[in-house]
Design brief:
Helix content: 25-40%
Strand content: 15-25%
Amino acid sequence: VKDLKLLKNTKKVVKKLSSKYKIFVVTNQPDVARGKNLKQNVININNKLKDIMDIDEIYTSFSENDKNYFRKPNPGMIFLAKKKHNINLNKSYFVGDTDKDIIAGKKGNCKTILLIKKYNKFHESKPDFLIKNFEELLDIIKV
């Protein structure tokens, strides 16, 4: 938790977006299944994120199996949020920094936004929007 670092302007952007939209985090954490991290560490980080930002809920897959319906690129966690919070996915945005994120968002019938990073490659996915920094979300998602 003490090593948690947010991208520049993340808190500001999430605060603005949460004034009009529900905010969810959908995350794969396979290092728990691989024995490289403890589930409680991930839970503590998720709780810290919810404490410092206006996040409605965090959905976490601890599986390392890409065939698991609740692990991105599969849309299981998106559909859990839809059911629980009565979300119209056609009017929703799914933001991520990997191909798996964009594929999951598309399978979930969301508009997709890829945050461009040096490490990501999006050969399979075709995001609806590309952004270079988190603040550019506000150019796409109107508050």
